[in-house]
Amino acid sequence: MAAKKKEDNKDLLKLKKQLSNGELSPLYLFYGEETFLKDMYVKRVADLVPDGGFPEFNHIRLEGADIPFSEYDDAWEGFPMMTDKKLIHIKDSGIFRIKTDKEDDYTLDDIKAFWTEKLKRISEDNVVIFDESIMDKRSALYKAAAKAGTVVEFNYMTEANLVTWVVKQCLDAKKKMSKQNAYYLISLCDPGLNNINNELQKLFDFCGEEIYKSDIDRVVSKSIQVVVFKLTDAIMTGDARAAAATLMDLKNTDKDAFPLIYLMFSNFEKLLRAKLMRGAPQGEIAAKLGVSVYVTRKYIDNAAGFSVDSLVWMVRRIAEIDLAIKEGRIEEWAALEQYVTECIWRARKNAS
Fold it and tell me: Is 272 helix (H, G, I), strand (E, B) or coil?
């Protein structure tokens, strides 16, 4: 995991150097979970390709997996108008993912042959950006793109880098926030700079020169996962009053109970995995759980408060509750409240 992060940083540093020097690759392949950074660098590349007053000819955007080959041919082969280069921004083409044998009008071999030829022959007049959501790095087309240009994977930032980023955003907005409060802010938000940035903008509008923890509590919308963690904490400590208050808050948001039951299942399943992987590197656990490293620490800490037997029971019990709901034997909110009560009893029994 450390080696992979180092390689990711190397790719991003290469991209930053190119853009700083105004030197563009003929092709860019951007992908990864951190869409805020991905979108930012798509814009930075685009800003270095003047549209010459004819954006419809010089800044071409093609989106989706159902674009016919003829449209790509027109974009690829056409000359820029009144400028040296044109930009071709291709979003979510899907050509770098695992495919079925036949997709729409083209076979897998058709797609591979078409794009293999295109990636071998990129005009010096073109700057092509592939902006992808799904990626299979084992594919031949991925390797061809890496050979033809610059490939960057945009991963979620580490916890330390997120804190630094938040503090910098505050300074840029002429606001102050301590590192401790920056960490508290990111702990309340879903992963991704888009989510954190949205909450920051609300804080900038609401707060004075300095942003305090009390401001964050008043303004920031807590992610549903954070609320589920809060409920898990109450279960772990056997605090029935805190659990009831959290459930009441959830009820008052008019949310359906069934998705929350599923989130509880997902949460306890991840806790069980983290418990069974105790002692493994945090990055390895994060990869297995499919969550960011800074969220993983919360799973590891919470897992320490439960026995393996308790977590296994909590996961299995939800399957039974799910069946009872589907058979109409219990209403969803009643099922969730009953489940939380049973879990608290189980946690108290385990602690005694």
Answer: helix
Residue 8: predicted pLDDT: 57
Which amino acid, residue 282?
Answer: Q
| pLDDT recorded at residue 259 | 87
Single out the residue of 166, 250, 178, 174 nearest to residue 214, CA to CA.
178
The two beta strands, 106-107 and 102-103, are antiparallel
CA distance 266 to 278: 18
Average predicted confidence (pLDDT) for the chain = 90
Dihedral angle sign, alpha carbons of residues 218, 224, 225, 230: positive
Residues 296-310 as b or e (16 or more Cβ within 10 Å = b): bbbbbebbebbeeeb
154: alpha, beta or left? (left if phi > 0; alpha if psi -120 to 50): beta
How far apart CA 20 and CA 41 sit, in angstroms, is: 12
pLDDT at 224: 83
Q: In this predicted structure, what is the pLDDT of residue 103?
A: 47
pTM metric for this prediction: 0.77
Contact status, residue 203 vs residue 220, Cβ threshold 8 Å: yes
C-alpha separations of 336 from 114, 171, 196 in Å: 53, 43, 29
Q: By the 8 A CB rule, do 275 and 312 touch?
A: no
Phi, psi of 29, rounded to the nearest 5 degrees: -120, 110
Contact between residue 294 and residue 186 where contact means Cβ atoms under 8 Å apart: yes
User: Which of 93-97, 101-105, 186-190 is predicted with the least confidence, judged by mean pLDDT?
Assistant: 101-105
How far are the Cα atoms of 85, 177, 200, 325 from residue 220, in angstroms, in the given order? 44, 14, 8, 33
d(CA 198, CA 202): 7
Lowest mean pLDDT among 178-182, 303-307, 337-341: 303-307
Amino acid of residue 4:
K
Q: Which two tokens stand for residue 321?
A: 């509750």
Quickly tell me which residue has 């938040």 as its tokens. Answer: 166
Cβ neighbours around 348 below 10 Å, total: 14
Burial letters for 188-206: b for 16+ Cβ neighbours within 10 Å, e otherwise? bbbbbbebbeebbeebbee
CA quadruple 131, 132, 135, 138: dihedral positive or negative? negative
Kindly state the percentage of the chain with pLDDT values over 90.
68
Residue 182 DSSP one-character state: H
